[in-house]
Design goal:
about 200 residues; about 25% strand; about 15% helix; globular; eight-stranded mixed β-sheet; alpha/beta; 3 helices; disordered N terminus
Length: about 200
């Protein structure tokens, strides 16, 4: 079980390692309106990269999926946006996301949702603990959990679409490989998806 000190020192260390500076949150847009927000840059290995930014443009599903069987999620790493289409095409959602902090942590391709958890717990991977030995080996569900309120586990080991309690991360290169959403957005997406929902990261 995590120590009581995690909610103070360790949590600050964890958050500081992936969210360098404060920025205003981006908001999802429906329809064809484009939205872009730029704030101060992030820094990765001493190099400035784009800060909180999300570009919102409604997309059609057909260039990316052969069908909408079980629904479909498209994550665009460059625009930091997640698109969702329901199987019957009655629902289309567009959300701002956080994305991996570096290219070597980024994975692209086709996968699917294989597990859905409300109130997830979290264990950092061995690679994460090697990079951040001060992190706890286990964090129970709750306000200190970096997976937020809900998690959609993908068929790729260690990869998830999940919420976050740290809203500074959204629209930013801030994750260790996962895709993050505001808690209210992941709760909505959780209610729309199911095991077997298609996922494509580009």
């Amino acid at each position: 079980m995590a120590s009581k000190n995690f909610s103070t020192l360790s949590r600050r260390s964890f958050l500081a390692s992936s969210a360098v500076s404060f920025a205003a949150p981006a908001f999802a847009q429906d329809g064809t309106t484009e939205y872009r927000e730029e704030v101060v840059p992030d820094w990765v290995d001493g190099t400035p990269v784009r800060g909180n930014s999300a570009s919102f443009r409604a997309l059609e599903w057909k260039p990316y999926f052969s069908s909408l069987r079980n629904g479909a999620i498209l994550v665009d790493i460059n625009s930091r946006a997640l698109h969702y289409w329901s199987e019957d095409q009655s629902v289309y959602k567009l959300y701002p996301t956080s994305v991996p902090i570096s290219e070597d942590l980024t994975r692209r391709g086709r996968t699917k949702i294989v597990r859905m958890v409300e109130g997830p717990d979290w264990r950092p991977t061995p690679a994460m603990l090697k990079r951040n030995p001060e992190w706890p080996p286990y964090v129970p569900p709750g306000p200190d959990n970096p997976l937020g309120s809900h998690a959609l586990y993908l068929s790729w080991t260690y990869y998830r679409i999940h919420g976050t309690h740290d809203t500074r991360k959204i629209g930013r290169r801030s994750s260790n490989g996962c895709i993050g959403l505001y808690n209210e957005h992941i709760a909505e997406l959780f209610s729309l998806t199911k095991n077997g929902t298609q996922v494509l990261l580009i």
